[in-house]
Amino acid sequence: MRCPKCNYEDSRVIETRSVENGGVIRRRRECPGCGNRFTTYERLERNKVLLVVKKDGRREVFDKQKVLRGMVRACEKLPVSLETLENAASSIEEELFGMGVGEVPSSLIGDMVANSLKEIDHVAYVRFASVYREFTDLQNFIEEISKLLRKEEGGKDRQ
Ligand SMILES: [Zn+2]
Protein backbone atom coordinates (compact mmCIF):
# COMPACT_ATOMS: atom_id res chain seq x y z
CA MET A 1 0.00 0.00 0.00
CA ARG A 2 1.46 3.32 -1.14
CA CYS A 3 1.96 6.03 1.49
CA PRO A 4 -0.57 8.82 0.85
CA LYS A 5 1.82 11.45 2.22
CA CYS A 6 5.17 10.82 0.54
CA ASN A 7 4.07 8.30 -2.06
CA TYR A 8 6.60 5.73 -0.85
CA GLU A 9 5.51 2.52 -2.48
CA ASP A 10 5.34 0.28 0.53
CA SER A 11 4.08 0.45 4.09
CA ARG A 12 4.32 -1.71 7.18
CA VAL A 13 1.18 -3.09 8.76
CA ILE A 14 1.24 -2.37 12.46
CA GLU A 15 -2.23 -3.51 13.39
CA THR A 16 -4.93 -5.57 11.70
CA ARG A 17 -8.46 -5.67 12.95
CA SER A 18 -11.60 -7.16 11.54
CA VAL A 19 -14.69 -4.95 11.71
CA GLU A 20 -18.33 -5.23 10.62
CA ASN A 21 -18.47 -8.94 11.44
CA GLY A 22 -15.38 -9.71 9.43
CA GLY A 23 -16.67 -8.06 6.26
CA VAL A 24 -14.09 -5.31 6.53
CA ILE A 25 -10.44 -5.52 7.54
CA ARG A 26 -9.01 -2.39 9.14
CA ARG A 27 -5.24 -1.99 9.02
CA ARG A 28 -3.05 0.57 10.69
CA ARG A 29 -0.02 1.13 8.52
CA GLU A 30 3.25 2.94 8.88
CA CYS A 31 5.37 4.30 6.06
CA PRO A 32 9.04 3.28 6.40
CA GLY A 33 9.97 6.33 4.31
CA CYS A 34 8.43 9.20 6.28
CA GLY A 35 6.96 7.51 9.35
CA ASN A 36 3.45 8.59 8.41
CA ARG A 37 0.75 6.43 9.95
CA PHE A 38 -2.48 5.84 8.16
CA THR A 39 -5.42 3.47 8.17
CA THR A 40 -6.77 1.40 5.32
CA TYR A 41 -9.98 -0.53 5.07
CA GLU A 42 -10.27 -3.61 2.94
CA ARG A 43 -13.71 -4.65 2.01
CA LEU A 44 -14.13 -8.21 0.83
CA GLU A 45 -14.86 -7.74 -2.81
CA ARG A 46 -17.18 -10.36 -4.14
CA ASN A 47 -16.82 -11.72 -7.61
CA LYS A 48 -18.36 -9.29 -10.05
CA VAL A 49 -19.48 -11.96 -12.42
CA LEU A 50 -20.87 -15.37 -11.74
CA LEU A 51 -21.28 -17.82 -14.57
CA VAL A 52 -24.14 -20.25 -14.71
CA VAL A 53 -23.29 -23.59 -16.30
CA LYS A 54 -26.25 -25.04 -18.11
CA LYS A 55 -26.90 -28.73 -18.55
CA ASP A 56 -25.41 -28.74 -22.02
CA GLY A 57 -22.24 -27.06 -20.77
CA ARG A 58 -22.97 -23.61 -22.11
CA ARG A 59 -22.26 -20.71 -19.78
CA GLU A 60 -24.16 -17.54 -19.25
CA VAL A 61 -23.72 -14.66 -16.86
CA PHE A 62 -25.85 -14.95 -13.74
CA ASP A 63 -28.74 -12.55 -13.92
CA LYS A 64 -30.83 -11.91 -10.84
CA GLN A 65 -33.63 -10.49 -12.99
CA LYS A 66 -33.92 -13.83 -14.69
CA VAL A 67 -34.33 -15.58 -11.35
CA LEU A 68 -36.92 -12.99 -10.37
CA ARG A 69 -38.84 -13.39 -13.63
CA GLY A 70 -39.00 -17.15 -13.08
CA MET A 71 -40.37 -16.60 -9.60
CA VAL A 72 -42.89 -14.01 -10.77
CA ARG A 73 -44.09 -16.42 -13.43
CA ALA A 74 -44.52 -19.19 -10.87
CA CYS A 75 -46.50 -16.84 -8.60
CA GLU A 76 -48.80 -15.51 -11.30
CA LYS A 77 -52.29 -14.86 -9.92
CA LEU A 78 -51.20 -15.86 -6.43
CA PRO A 79 -51.31 -13.55 -3.41
CA VAL A 80 -47.55 -13.00 -3.35
CA SER A 81 -46.11 -9.51 -3.42
CA LEU A 82 -43.35 -8.49 -5.79
CA GLU A 83 -41.37 -7.33 -2.77
CA THR A 84 -41.40 -10.83 -1.29
CA LEU A 85 -40.09 -12.24 -4.55
CA GLU A 86 -37.49 -9.51 -4.92
CA ASN A 87 -36.22 -10.24 -1.42
CA ALA A 88 -36.11 -13.94 -2.17
CA ALA A 89 -34.21 -13.37 -5.42
CA SER A 90 -31.76 -11.10 -3.59
CA SER A 91 -31.07 -13.71 -0.92
CA ILE A 92 -30.43 -16.29 -3.60
CA GLU A 93 -28.02 -13.90 -5.29
CA GLU A 94 -26.27 -13.17 -1.99
CA GLU A 95 -25.94 -16.83 -1.23
CA LEU A 96 -24.56 -17.64 -4.66
CA PHE A 97 -21.97 -14.86 -4.60
CA GLY A 98 -21.18 -15.73 -1.00
CA MET A 99 -20.00 -19.14 -2.13
CA GLY A 100 -17.04 -17.35 -3.66
CA VAL A 101 -16.90 -19.51 -6.76
CA GLY A 102 -16.83 -18.37 -10.37
CA GLU A 103 -19.34 -20.82 -11.76
CA VAL A 104 -22.42 -22.61 -10.49
CA PRO A 105 -24.55 -25.24 -12.19
CA SER A 106 -27.98 -24.03 -13.29
CA SER A 107 -29.50 -26.94 -11.37
CA LEU A 108 -28.25 -25.42 -8.11
CA ILE A 109 -30.06 -22.17 -8.84
CA GLY A 110 -33.16 -24.12 -9.78
CA ASP A 111 -33.02 -25.94 -6.44
CA MET A 112 -32.55 -22.70 -4.55
CA VAL A 113 -35.50 -21.08 -6.30
CA ALA A 114 -37.63 -24.17 -5.67
CA ASN A 115 -36.71 -24.20 -1.97
CA SER A 116 -37.41 -20.53 -1.68
CA LEU A 117 -40.81 -20.83 -3.37
CA LYS A 118 -41.65 -23.73 -1.08
CA GLU A 119 -41.45 -21.26 1.81
CA ILE A 120 -43.40 -18.57 -0.01
CA ASP A 121 -46.30 -20.36 -1.66
CA HIS A 122 -46.91 -24.06 -2.15
CA VAL A 123 -48.80 -23.62 -5.39
CA ALA A 124 -45.96 -21.56 -6.82
CA TYR A 125 -43.52 -24.21 -5.70
CA VAL A 126 -45.40 -27.01 -7.39
CA ARG A 127 -45.72 -24.96 -10.57
CA PHE A 128 -42.04 -24.20 -10.59
CA ALA A 129 -40.96 -27.68 -9.63
CA SER A 130 -43.09 -29.37 -12.24
CA VAL A 131 -41.43 -27.28 -14.92
CA TYR A 132 -37.85 -26.83 -13.76
CA ARG A 133 -37.00 -29.49 -11.29
CA GLU A 134 -36.47 -32.94 -12.55
CA PHE A 135 -38.42 -35.25 -10.37
CA THR A 136 -36.72 -38.52 -11.10
CA ASP A 137 -40.06 -40.19 -11.43
CA LEU A 138 -43.71 -39.62 -10.89
CA GLN A 139 -43.53 -41.27 -7.47
CA ASN A 140 -41.09 -38.60 -6.28
CA PHE A 141 -43.39 -35.88 -7.46
CA ILE A 142 -46.41 -37.41 -5.73
CA GLU A 143 -44.45 -37.80 -2.50
CA GLU A 144 -43.37 -34.19 -2.64
CA ILE A 145 -46.95 -33.03 -3.18
CA SER A 146 -48.35 -35.16 -0.37
CA LYS A 147 -45.66 -33.83 1.97
CA LEU A 148 -46.80 -30.31 1.15
CA LEU A 149 -50.45 -31.18 1.56
CA ARG A 150 -49.77 -32.69 4.99
CA LYS A 151 -47.95 -29.51 5.96
CA GLU A 152 -50.88 -27.44 4.72
CA GLU A 153 -53.30 -29.52 6.85
CA GLY A 154 -51.15 -28.93 9.87
CA GLY A 155 -50.89 -25.20 9.34
CA LYS A 156 -54.49 -24.39 8.50
CA ASP A 157 -55.00 -22.06 11.44
CA ARG A 158 -52.41 -19.74 9.96
CA GLN A 159 -54.96 -18.12 7.72
ZN1 LIG B 1 5.49 8.13 3.61
Characterization of this structure:
The chain has 159 residues and is of the alpha+beta class. It has 2 domains: 32 residues; 108 residues. Helices cover 45% and strands 19% of the residues. It contains 5 helices and 6 strands. The strands form 2 sheets. It has a 3-stranded antiparallel sheet, with no helix packed on it. Strand 4 and strand 5 form a beta hairpin. Helix 1 packs across helix 2 and helix 3 packs antiparallel against helix 4. The longest helix is centred in the middle third of the chain and has 17 residues. The protein binds zinc ion. Zinc ion (ZN) binds next to loops. The site of zinc ion has 8 residues, from loops.
Blueprint (SSEs and pairs):
Elements: E1 12-19, E2 24-30, E3 37-43, E4 51-53, E5 59-61, H1 64-74, H2 82-98, E6 103-105, H3 106-120, H4 122-132, H5 138-154
Parallel strand pairs: 4-6
Antiparallel strand pairs: 1-2, 2-3, 4-5
Helix pairs in contact: 1-2, 2-3, 3-4
The protein binds zinc ion.
Zinc ion binds next to loops.
